[in-house]
UniProtKB/TrEMBL annotation:
It comes from Caballeronia humi. It is found in: Cell inner membrane. One of its GO terms (biological process) is peptide transport. NCBIfam families: oligo_HPY (TIGR01727). Residues 6-257 form the ABC transporter domain. The keyword Glycosyltransferase does not apply. This is Oligopeptide/dipeptide ABC transporter ATPase. One of its GO terms (molecular function) is ATP binding. PROSITE patterns: ABC_TRANSPORTER_1, ABC_TRANSPORTER_2. CDD domains: ABC_NikE_OppD_transporters (cd03257). InterPro entries: AAA+_ATPase (IPR003593), ABC_Ni/Peptide_Import (IPR050388), ABC_transporter-like_ATP-bd (IPR003439), ABC_transporter-like_CS (IPR017871), Oligopep_ABC_C (IPR013563), P-loop_NTPase (IPR027417). The keyword Cell inner membrane applies. Gene3D superfamilies: P-loop containing nucleotide triphosphate hydrolases (3.40.50.300).
Amino acid sequence: MNGPVLEIDDLVVEARSSDKQVRIVDGVSFAVHAGRTLGLVGESGSGKSVTCLSLLGLPPRGVSVTGGRILFDGCDLRGRTPAELNALRGREIGMILQDPMTSLNPLLTIGRQITEMFRYRDGIKSREEREARAIDLLQQVRIPAPESRLNSYPHQFSGGMRQRVAIAMNLACNPRLLIADEPTTALDITVRLQILDLLREVQTERGTAIVLVTHDLHLVRRYCDDVAVMYAGRIVEQGPVEQVFARPRHPYTKGLLGAVPRLFSAQRRLTVIPGQPPLPGSIAEGCRFAPRCPRAQADCLSAYPATRDIDTNRTVACWHPEPEEMAPEPLLATEAS
């Protein structure tokens, strides 16, 4: 298929606060194609996780999608019934959460949790066949001695192994889209790279489209094809990783990259973005980054800038973008090693 597996068009997500609706996600648009990984980055509270949960029709309590389109294979998921969405979850769209203990039942064995997917999703009645498939999945995610681990409980696995089990459960139905929401945050760097290497191998074999939510720009540089930078509920810049990281045009993107330690630049001082992101419900008119932006001018405070194309497959939402020149000391792929 030539079109994107997932296309988000002007998504609006609101939460009920006292007697008013507060926009958490405001006009977000992006797309991800088969076999490609989109990195969704930004500070905590920018709306990344809410966006991903909304794609699955699972926004937090009190939060709802009030505008825009969520196109999966060209069909708007907002028009689907709860039963139709439930049929898509797991089978067509998978999600890996930050803490696997929130997606694994601590009272059930790993084997029980994996095999029940084959029973209810695929209608496989044979226990032996279900267990054989579960063992095969655990082998694919490199869990040693999988036959002996089917009767283990989640607490008997390390954090990295639990995350591998969560990946195995998502792979059980061979989804076309995989959403990974901070899947490696609680893991040490070695295990973190192993998990993402595993996801990349799965993507290569199956052509899976992946949305990776992360704070770690080194991982984005190493594993993602495209990146969307999110701030206060909006996408401020997006495009191919190589281009965005080498020539950031939005001051916020430049600030994020400047705050990343460089392995080979010990004498370089890290930059600091002053201030704090605005709280939902307290956002003033104009550009939301203006109070923290070194390039802000009077027009930045009066109206939010429209998103404009600045290159092939690149957009930025800024009245006064950074000059189009090579960023000093760009983030290198070797620094993620």
